[in-house]
Amino acid sequence: MKVMIRKSERGFSAYVPKKDLEEPIVRAETEDLWGGVVTLKNGWRLDLPPMPADTRLPITVEARKLGDDE
Fold first, then answer.
1. TM spans, by residue (predicted)?
2. CB within 8 A of 6, min separation 6: which ones?
3. Please, what are the domains in the chain?
């Protein structure tokens, strides 16, 4: 699914245009955000693609939504 990642003074957030949903990212598997699983405030878990740590934001990426068992 397409996800826009952006950063504000409150931290990172993810916007899913198809669902018109924007949620803060509350947990990241990797320190630099990319190439790992992030958890949104609503409980969704998204697997983000590997990107350079200095990737300019906002950016739209293809992320994979993980189920509860993954």
1. none
2. 12, 13, 15, 57, 58
3. 2-66 (2.40.50.240)
